Amino acid sequence: MLSLSSRARAQDHAVPRLEAGPDLSFFQLAYWPTDAGGGAHVTVGLTPLISSETRMRLFGHEPIPALERGGRTFQIFSGARATFLSRGPATVYGVLMPGVIHFSNAVTSVTRDAMSVGGSTHFAVDMGAGVSIRLHDRWSLQADWTGPLYAVDGFSELSTFPPAAQRGIREVLEPAAIHSSAQFSAGVSYRTGVLAAPIEPLRRGSWLAGGDVGIAAYAPVVAVFADVIKAARVGGFTSFPLTSWMDADIGGDVYLHVDNSHATNEGGRISQLLAGAKVGRRSGRLGYFGKIRAGVQSHSQALLAAADYSGPPPYPPPVDGRRFRPALDIGTVIETSLGRRFVWRVDVSDVIAFYPSKTVLIAGRPVADYAMPAADQIVMTSGLAWRF
């Protein structure tokens, strides 16, 4: 973000525009009550389309402590805000802000006999979109819908079965999880300063093709370890313009980590192939886009047939093989032109993988395994592309 801000400021030497004001916010985590809270935001204009924004929010007390939350919730996020569309007094914008979420009274430790509670802090990524309406030369109203994502590790203890304990095998008491929340915020802003440069007209992009590296944080449904898995990934992407504000976008990645768990929907090495569109604006060397892509997530060693103990030994072992699951990628893309041909691309995504019902062979007979809730992944990648 510091690099992007430096490049943006180099394009425009006008007086920075500063906006600040209070917010009212509602925070909701799945299966939990909605909390009301408030805070403030400060937005510094870097170009007519790109701004840096910092937000702080405090929410009411949740009396039930849990691994994912508990007590009062405090958030602080800081990142980029970009204008997608501006017509008269109305502006549609997107935000991408890393930060932290702190819970004052969450579960911090779990054993077979007891649990501990206290303060808990998690790195989080907040993404979303909103609308700002100018009421006067200095005053405006804004409202946005975002979804902070954060990971929570679980807990494990040495197995109580002596042979397993001798081999150091641990039992997962509480599994790890990636939590996706929903947050609606509305506030008022007072603006000082101006950005003298006019907003650039929409312009078409170019064909891009390149490679990327990154990291994904996820939690398998079949938990072998209690920690969130952080897997390196490598892949490639290409995009080409459809209109002046929309590009087709295709990407494929392979995870370098191999999961030791084997279930009907997952196991082994993960790979993904996703295709869709990214929508946004370009301002000078910078481009900011919201993206949505759909595709498949493949697992190389998922369970196809369970071990068969119905007959006499030797018993047929379980059979693993490739499984495919539908996936949806929702996120943000920031592109920076490094030269006439090279583009630096940064992607931050919530990759949602779905768990449909799958058939597994048990004693030679096909049995339908039940569907399970979708799972979120926090994915961050960076790469270089060649412009054609």
List keywords for this structure.
mainly beta, Porin, 2 domains, eight-stranded antiparallel barrel, 4% helix, disordered N terminus
Q: What does this protein structure show overall?
A:
- This protein is mostly beta strands and 388 residues long.
- The chain has 2 domains: 1-198, Porin, CATH 2.40.160; 200-388, Porin, CATH 2.40.160.20.
- Helix content is 4%, strand content 69%.
- It is built from 2 helices and 21 strands.
- It has helices at residues 2-11, 162-166; strands at 18-29, 35-45, 50-62, 71-87, 90-110, 115-134, 139-146, 149-152, 155-158, 170-174, 177-192, 208-218, 229-241, 246-262, 267-283, 286-305, 319-337, 342-355, 358-362, 365-369, 372-387.
- The strands form 4 sheets. Strands 1, 2, 3, 4, 5, 6, 7, 8 and 11 form a 9-stranded antiparallel β-sheet that branches. An 8-stranded antiparallel beta barrel has the order 12-13-14-15-16-17-18-21.
- Mean pLDDT is 90; it is low at 1-15.
